[in-house]
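Folds vary. Our protein:
___
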Amino acid sequence: MPLFPFRLSLFSLFLFITSVAACAADKGAVLLKDLKAGHYDFFLKADNAAYRSVKMMGRGSAYYVGLHLKRAGYEQAARFYFDLGEKQYEAPLNRLCREELYATGAPADRLQSVQKRLQELTKKTDTFGQEDTAQAEKERLSLLEIRLLLQTGAYSSITQAPETLYLTGPLTAELVDAFPRFGKDLPPFLYKLAEARIAVFEKRYTGAWSSVQEAFGIEHTFAGLASPALLSDIGKAGVYGAENSAEAAAFFEDFAAQVRVAVSNRQLSDIDAHRCLFYTLFYEARCRAKIGGAAQREQAVKLFLQAAELADSASDFDSAMWYYLDTMRMLGLSRYLKALADTAARWKNPAWYADLVQSLRAQLTAAKDWKNLETLHTMLAKTQLPEQQAAVAYTLACAGHLPPDRTARLLQEAAGESHDALYYRILGTYRLGGAQLLKDSFNFHSASNGQTQSGRRTQSPGTQAQAGESHTQADAGKAQTSTFSPQEARTYIDGLLHFGLYDMVYPRIVAVYPSISAEEALQIARTLASEGRYADSIRVIRFSLKNQEDAATKEQLELLYPRPWGELVSKYAAEYRLPEYLLYALIRSESFFQHQVVSGAGAVGLTQLMPATAADIAKKLKIADYSLTDPEINIRFGAYYLAEMIRRSDNRIMPACFAYNAGISRVRGWQKKAQGLPEDLFLESLEYAETRDYGRKLLSAATVYGVLYYSEEPEDIVLSFFPNAQRQ
């Protein structure tokens, strides 16, 4: 028989298979488009036929479809896909689906998933080398099981005693809701303490303090009283709920005396006694500081120091030390400075104290107290607060009272690379007298080898967090190592991008990557930016730069400082005679280019306008119907308002920026108090930390935008903000 018919049949089979694959790809593309658009009808069928089609959408599709449905409120349908994914996928997608089953659907269904996993962990015998991980998972799921048992009312299945749950650990909404039934058999003393904790949880501090008072009026022992959670809530009840702080202070003083008696009678271990004494001394001190007056504050500082010596954690130590210093602040400047100097080397987490240092810097600058500012500078050398040290160095250098060599050294410190404060690097370099030196620091490059075109390694502009985080989602937190390999992490993130779950990308990067390579971050950031997710794109690049030794490349900077809505910015910058780079700096600092964002204070949109301000602008521009989430309206109104602030500030940009942030009347009041200070030191003297930071952000961002896109000289931008800034 001739071979031709056989060859033809093979070719026909190939065409058939190719045609089927193409149809599957087309169907997958259509389904993906529907999913991204929120058209969920097909996916809500949640049956095996639907799943066969869902598989055409790409790797891990059941997991990502489940996430979409869960976010849309279709939790039972989402569980169908998560359940399939847990059974059929490999790591890490099977783990991700399992975690979603714990958190999705009715409490009874979630409980079943948790208990199933707990049984698996109990049966496992092949966990050699992973015992700690398995134990941690069991402990976490056991706590979740309790919450779900409480939600379902299955109290008899809870093995932990009510006193353990209500008095030793963190409270949850489930525990609070179940208290009338689950906690009803607690002994009277413990019942009242649990009642107090619940009132603190609900921020009913007066009721909490009343319950504490009633509890300690009942005969009791110290058994179970050494729980940090319980002691902390008793303290909060006294500080925030007592009408008479003196009576609350006396209560904690008596509590401490009872603890010492209990130790002497061997009713309390030394460890538990130390913990009880830490909290009683700490909260007595806070009550005495709240009473006010020199005598009470003197007593409070002694108590805070005693508490610090008893602290059994770094956070407890820093809490006691912070309140000690804050109370010393009210007892006189010289003693406060000495206390800072004496304790600085002992601070566990220096960032804890940054607000105290910032406030003191502003106070000393406003008073032109350069001698004590020198003392603060010396003290900061003992800490790990490099940005604060750079700020003090710059302020001292510009005060005009030091010899030239000392001034130069301070400016070099401010301009150095030991900190991430771009503002002080820019101004320090400018003040050192070299226009070329300042320009060199903005010598952008395209390679990723950390060299500028001149070959000198630099810390590139823009590597710090410059955005207006007060108006945007804050960072998801410090990166956590996880069970994801780098390849698994990348596959997971690519899936989020592929399935259009863009707002989950940055938080999940922080969760699954200890660090991320520059190239991976660039690829992800490009995709986010192309989808209009500029804030997340910026955050991804910024996260990658935290672990990048080399300077930022030009492409990284362009993603850190993007220019969306270019036509609108150009149009309204020209109409209101603003530099484009300044308007971009304003939008980036205010909103991170999130056109629908609303701040906690109610400011709306790209330029973060308050509705009342916008209504006034609309009236002046004769616009009757508008929406502040419309990018064109918001950019127009913001440009108009900034231009108006500049006009009312005698055409000075930096005071206008302060006015945009804090209101022009308040800024004029500050100016009257600060007569004689140059404008850059006026910034350092401002009472509002937010406004000080705002001015720094705008100048820094404006300089980067001006140099990066508009061929501006950095010194010209500095002079536009501070016309009288003198070089050394």
Remarks:
- The first helix runs from residue 4 to 37.
- The two ends are 98 Å apart (CA to CA).
- The chain has 37 helices and no strands.
- Residues 13-22, 447-460, 462-481 have pLDDT under 50 and may be disordered.
